[in-house]
Amino acid sequence: MGRIILTGDRPTGKLHLGHYVGSLRNRVLLQNEGNYDRMFVFIADVQALTDNADNPEKVRQNIIEVALDYLSCGLDPEKVTLFIQSQIPELHEMTQFFSNLVTVQRLQRNPTVKAEMALRGFEGGATDDNKRGLPVGFFTYPISQAADICFCKATTVPVGEDQEPMIEQCREIVRSFNGTYKCDVLVEPEILLPTNLACRRLPGTDGKAKMSKSLGNCIYLSDDRKTMEQKVKGMFTDPGHLRVEDPGKVEGNPVFTYLDAFVEEGDFAKYWSEYQNLQEVKDHYTRGGLGDMKCKKFLINVLNDRLDPIRERRHALEQDIPAVYEILRKGSDAARQVAAQTLHEMKDAMKINYFDDAALIAQQAEKYRQ
Description:
Blueprint: E1 4-9, H1 17-33, E2 38-43, H2 45-49, H3 56-73, E3 81-84, H4 90-99, H5 104-109, H6 111-120, H7 136-139, H8 141-150, E4 156-158, H9 164-180, E5 190-192, H10 225-233, H11 254-262, H12 267-271, H13 278-287, H14 292-317, H15 321-350, H16 358-369
Parallel strand pairs: 1-2, 2-3, 4-5
């Protein structure tokens, strides 16, 4: 069967640095290493609609934004199947079948679902001014995600650590399906986390635990130099580091988390030669005598080095948008062929392949001839 990767993003806005270090950068590396037999990357517009049903235009407009970010970061449609979730109707059939194998109580225990509910202001069936009633589609998000993973029999799902509960629930669904229908049609996926711990959950520029579009604390991959620099200069640091000579804290300081995530060998020789490595900077900051703005200026230089090639590729891609949509169309057609085959195998296992089951038809014919 081979090794297969599946991963994707919701099109609720342009992708940001959290997406990049959490999975996107690694996707490009995995694509180029050639250690996997096939790689699927999708734009999860159906899942985006679970909490944007009243604003479908937002999702529609952001399809191209995500596609441009994918391609500008280096995803190659010759090596990766890029597709749009809603264009694969077989996924919705799989989701329905899987929903019969998961209890409401199990969904309620999923910590990722609970965290996302709180973030978006959903609270059960509440309808007061501060809370919105919980859409069923949003609540069953993990089931839909399991279908996304299972349609291509993905063996590996590269995501951030906040998605671990979702992958575990997918594994449970796979075990339940294969066990219930006494088959080995579906595959239990393994999670692939970033090896750099700082990349597993990049904080927002405001110091919040997670970079999030809804919190307005993002640096986007498509931000121009001026915008990005303004965001870094305004970034939260150690509130106790009031003067340059004051000792500072590195832990919980977003500037240093970003440096951990982005600094590469050679950056110091190029931009800050008085230090040999990041640990020397951290030591100096901790004992006092190093200002926040110097650290931020270094971070700006490092980020521009990483983002300038992405910006240039994005600008070129923006000149031929129909070609980008054609890439997505071809990828969606290819993904649908794979999904149709898996769904056929699932229906065989479930014994609902009525028109293909010659033995059933013959049995029923014999029954009514008596």
